[in-house]
Amino acid sequence: MLTDGTSDSERMSDPLSPELDQSPELDQSQSSDLPAETAEIEAPVSSTARSEDLVAEQPLPEAPVPQIGDVPNQELDVFEVDSDSQEPVEDSSSRASTLDNTGTLDSEPGFSLSKWVLSASAPDRLMTLMGFAIAALGSLFVFMQMRPDLLFLDSTPSGGDMGAHVWGPAYMRDHLLTSGRLTGWTPDWYAGFPAYQYYMVVPALAIIAMNAGLNPILGIPLGVVAIAFSIGAGRSFPAFKAALVSAGVLAAILLIGMPYGVAFKLVSVAGLVSFPLSAWLMARLMKCPTPVPEFISLGALVFLFDTNFSIYGGNIASTLAGEFAFSLSLSLTLIGLGLAARGLDGGNWRASSAVVISLIALCHIIPLFFAIVALILLVLLDDALPRSWAIASVITFALAPLTLAEGTPLLVQAAAVGAFLVVAAAVMVAEPRVWERAKWLLVTGPIAALLSAFWLVPFYLRADFF
After folding, report:
1. Where is 243: in which H helix or E strand?
2. What is the mean pLDDT of residues 57-62?
C-alpha cells in the first residue's frame, strides 16, 4: 500500500484516518501491482488525512442544550426543564413531583396534574384513570338513586327533620345576612330560639349561594368565563393555582341562580354523591397501592346503602331524614385525612389540610371528633415506629375517651389521660420522626381552629344553653 510518511500505528489511532474502512488490507506485494492511476488518486487522500489529524486534535465545541421545539419528536423530562427559562434546573434526583412504586404522587412542592400526565408511564396513568372511573361510577350510581327528576323539580323537600331544615337557610338569607350576621334570635317556634347558634352554618351558606345568582341563560356563560379566567390566572401564578381555580368555581356557582327548593335538595345530597370519590381520593393521598383505593370506594358505597340505622348520620337513610350536614362533613373528613396523611409524610400541605379540617367543623361537629382521633393516630402510627410502641400508643389512646363516660371518677380520668401523654412523649423521644409529624399537627391544628373559631368559640361558650 502507498504511504505518505506516517506509520500504520499512527494511522490506526487516528479516528478520522481513511485507512479505517471495511475494505481488506493490501500487503506490500499487492500494492506494487496497483496501477499508476490509483497511486495518483490515493496520494491526495493521504495528505488530506494529515490535515484531519490537526482538526481532530482541536477540542470540539460544546453542543448547545437542545430547546423544546428545536427537534421534532424530542423527548424531554418536564421535571428537569424550567418552562419559563427553557434551561435545565435540576437533575432527576430532586424532581418536584414523581411517582412512587405504587403509582401515587409524592408530596413535593410544585406538583401539577399536567406534569404527572406527561411524566407517568402509560400503565400508571391507565390504572389511575380506571380507579377514578370506578369511584366516579359509584358517585353517579348514588346520584341516580336520588331521583334526579325530583331533585331538579322546584318543590319543598320533606321527610324526617328535613322539613324543619328547609326553614333555616331561608331565614338566614332574609333576616340574618341582611343584618351582617350568621347567627341571631328568631321568634319562630313558640317563644323563639337562637338560630344557627348551635347548628353549623356552611351547609346553609352553600344553599344560599346556589339559590342566589343570575338567570341561568346569563349565569352559565359568565360562570364558564369565570372558571376559564381562574385557570388562566393559575397558570400565571402557579403558587396560587388551587386557590384561584377554587375561587373561579365558587364565582361560577354564585353567578348561576336556581330555585330555593332545587338548591336545597342538591346540597342535601352532595355529601352522599361525593362520598365514594372522597374515599378513593383519601386512599390515593395515603399512597395505598392499587386496587386498595378502588375497594375503599366500593366499601363507602356499601356503607351509604346500609339500613341498620336511620338517624346516626352518614348513610342515605339518615341523610334523607335531615342529617345532610353530617354527610357533608363526613365526606370532607375523608379528604382531610388524606391530605393530612400526605402532609405528615412530606411536612407540607398545612394550609390545604387546615382549610378542610375547619370546613369539617363548620359542616357538622360530630365528624370533627372522628377526624381528631384519626389525626392523632396518623401521627403516632408511623412506619418507622416499632410495633410495641404502636400497640402501647393505641391502647392508651383508646382508654382515654372511655373515661369521659358520665360517672367516671376524676382520678380515673386523669390517670388515663396522663398515661396516654406519657406514652406519646416516650414515643416522640424514641423516634424523632414521630416528633416531626407531631409538630406538623401542632401547627395545622391551631390554624384550622382559628379558621372556624368565629362559630366554634360562641358554640363552646354558650354550651350551657345547648
Report:
1. helix 241-255
2. 52
